[in-house]
Design a protein that fits this description.
The complex is a heterodimer of chains A (199) and B (108). Chain A is an all-alpha fold and 199 residues long. Chain A has one domain. Helices cover 81% and strands 0% of the residues of chain A. In chain A, α1 runs parallel beside α5, α5 packs across α7 and α7 runs antiparallel to α10. Chain B has one domain. At the A-B interface, α6, α7 and α10 of A face α1 of B.
Chain lengths: 199, 108
């Protein structure tokens, strides 16, 4: 591992270390760490999803290329924060039977499903998996989109707090909209013909 | 990519529709109409209420003008309950975002 990557991972792990320390010292209960772990997971997903559409819109530059080059790390970190979220859930619930019993509640199964959807891209995040899966790799990585939406749904259903969830959706909607506009501008003829299905 | 991009708004809609079936009140929005804080009972007195419910107390705090309790029921269910700070009456109980109890006549 190059040292810049080690520094990046130290930075990514720092909030998690603080949370684990707060739990172990008895300063925070497991249930109080649901929110910070979930929020970090979502924000890292957003950070991983932003550079692609930004490059499509504004073209490549040093900053965006650098951002793109750490995208896989951001995605894996998002998964690890989701895993930590799950660990605190298990520590809070204690009983497997209680966890199974509440799985039918929408706020809970959306969370499990989001985790499952994120598990796949995280599991194939290695260079080797990337090489062996070829074009399928990119398709499987796109599971992060449903994972993200399910995670937002999970958050909404748990607390019914609309504003912060919408705030987290906003940057992605903004860049997707920008990309759409950029694609239409640069390719007006193609765009006009695309919707026509074969007659 | 096209399939994923086309299907995710559908998924989002599905998730939200499922959610719409549940009561849509934010936990932070519960209003107890408790009046001035000088007249509130000590929050520690809630411990007895929690014991009477046969719950395992995890956390107590002031939320807006309510007392909020995080606890586990005897069956291990995770609950979030709101109590009136003056009467210590149990007003509303949520379980993972779903309302499972509401005191008769309580609209806050």
């Amino acid at each position: 591992m190059h040292w810049p990557r080690a520094v990046l991972w130290l930075l990514l792990a720092f909030p998690a270390m603080l949370m684990v320390e707060r739990y172990l010292s008895g300063e925070a209960l497991a249930l109080e760490l649901y929110h910070p772990t979930g929020e970090w997971s979502l924000r890292l997903m957003i950070a991983a999803l932003l550079p692609g559409p930004l490059i499509d819109t504004f073209g490549s530059n040093r900053l965006l290329r650098g951002w793109l080059s750490i995208r896989r790390n951001l995605g894996v970190a998002a998964f690890l924060y989701a895993l930590l979220h799950l660990v605190f859930y298990v520590l809070d619930m204690r009983l497997i039977s209680a966890m199974v019993e509440e799985m039918a509640i929408p706020a809970i199964w959306t969370g499990w499903l989001a985790f499952a959807a994120l598990l796949v891209p995280a599991a194939i995040s290695t260079d080797r998996a990337m090489r062996s899966l070829g074009s399928r790799w990119k398709r499987l990585q796109r599971l992060v989109y449903p994972a993200f939406i399910l995670a937002i749904g999970h958050w909404l259903l748990i607390g019914w707090d609309w504003l912060p969830a919408l705030v987290h959706l906003a940057p992605l909607f903004a860049v997707w909209l920008l990309r759409l506009i950029a694609v239409r501008r640069s390719n007006p003829v193609k765009e006009q013909t695309r919707p026509c299905a074969p007659h | 990519m096209r399939t994923t991009l086309k299907s995710w708004p559908l998924l989002a809609a599905a998730v939200l529709c499922v959610g719409m079936g549940s009561p849509a009140s934010a936990d932070g929005d519960v209003k107890c109409n408790a009046g001035p804080q000088e007249k509130w009972q000590k929050i520690s007195k809630l411990k007895k209420q929690v014991w009477l419910e046969e719950w395992k107390l995890l956390k107590m705090q002031v939320q807006g003008d309510c007392y909020e309790v995080y606890a586990h029921t005897k069956q291990g269910q995770s609950v979030e309950a709101f109590f009136h700070p003056v009467t210590l009456e149990k007003l509303v109980v949520f379980r993972r975002g779903q309302e499972i109890f509401r005191a008769k006549g309580f609209k806050g």
